[in-house]
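Exercise: predict the fold of this chain.
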Amino acid sequence: MLKRIQKTYALSDQGLKNTITGTIWTVIVNLVVMGGIGILYMLMNDFMNTLLYKAALPSFLFYGLCVVVFLVLSYYTHLQQYQATYGLVYNEVKTTRLNLAEKLRKLPLGYFGKRDLADLTETIMGDVNRMEHVWSHVLGYLYGSYISTIVIAIALCFVDYRLAIATLWGVPVAFLLLFGSRKLSHRNAEITKGKAIQVSDGMQEILENMQEIHATSQEERFQKDLDNKIDDLEKTMIRGELATGLFVNGASVVMRLGVATTILTGASLIASGKIDFMLFFMFLLIITRIYAPFDQSLALIAELFLSQVSANRINEIYDTPAMEGSEVFEPNGHTIVFDHVDFSYEEEAVLKDVSFVAKEGEITALVGPSGSGKSTCARLSARLWDVTGGNILVGGIPISTIDPETLLRDYSMVFQDVVLFDDTVKENIRLGKRGASDEEVYAAAKAANCEEFIQKLPNGYDTNIGENGTKLSGGERQRISIARALLKDAPIVLLDEATASLDVENESKIQEALSRLLKGKTVLVIAHRMRTIEAADKIVVLKDGHVEEEGSPEELKKKNGTFTKMLALQNASTAWSI
């Protein structure tokens, strides 16, 4: 039961404990409040005895002490309830976001291909915010109201089951009515969430492509499209809230009919002499309080239904299988072996029975037409994705058994899509090796041919390059990325079209630096230009997701096969991607 609640509302272990604590204190608060009604009933009963039967006046000292005790208990229990339902839960938000970030860090790249940035951001920020209100304002209060009302109902049945039924029959009926709207509320919440993500996507698209929008004079079209998405979201929210409001108010009306049935039943029982007035008066007092928790609970349940969409989105991240493995990696060398590797992205087969060896100390080039699986092989070799069939071994150890972070300590990577941070040139390069000295950074930058443009920057190596290097050209960004990889000096180097953004002169300098600095390492290189792979020890030709042929450049030229045809096509300036 508790585990199901934890799963349903995406609670951490500590969050579940907080919810239990909040529930317990809510029960205690509700019982203490009913105790206050009991004091009032006893006082009125004593007054009635005095008036009717000439009994002694009630002891004001006794009732004064009772009121003081009630006020102290009420203050203390309300304070504990507040701490349990609000104070403790705010840490749950931090814990949940950290847990989500930790889980996302361990997921394969294929997962991020299915979820765009706006969607993930909405989950981490928007969905967690919605659940925070549920954790702090709903769960403890709602479950506490359930339990305390059941306890009170049982006690009332022992006093007089007829008045108890008359008082409480509307509560389960109201909740059944509200639960009947659950599917509708859930569907409306899913539609609203989808519309909200569309708005976020639209805003992100405009911000990311502002330059192109201005350049093509499309401001009005994009603005109108965003306005339509916002209007659509607003209408969807209004419809959803109207439907929810109708059910909540309808349930509240049904529950309040218990007041009428209590009065009618009580009057009938008094008239027939089956109960006295004071018993009837006690139930009238109870009515003033017993519905109060449920007035708010009805609205809370409606919010609970709406929150299920957010909880499901959070759980979807938690439930995605993470990439795990041993934190100890001691390979016998760093030769990479692809052993009958298959890989599919969703249901689309990308690699089929791929086998080849990239030997330590050699440069192995992956070539082939666009879409042949070159980049996929490079990413699989570093376990950025997991294979769907076969095995990849490094130094004789299957990389599927190694924790990705441990494995990547032995890899340096430069991909075509460069990622830089809003920091200085020096710190962006230093990311390749934590604690590297300035001299090591300068040496790596020089080897990557960065010095020429760095010296022209206002503050040299201490110049801030903006978000993702917006103040630099594409070639300059690429060279910083190469410098970062060179600084890491890992035994395995992956170069995926790393020189695609460089001119011929700079490419030649980079190739010279790579030839010198990559000596003795295992290198997998993917490139457009033949000059990039002239120094390769081995070439693996991929076509339609399988190995077409492999060997040294000279061997492949003699075969007069696919590689030779690709050379001819490149010389003729066709669209082949090598």
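Check your answer against the key: The domain at 323-403+529-578 is CATH 3.40.50.300 (Rossmann fold).
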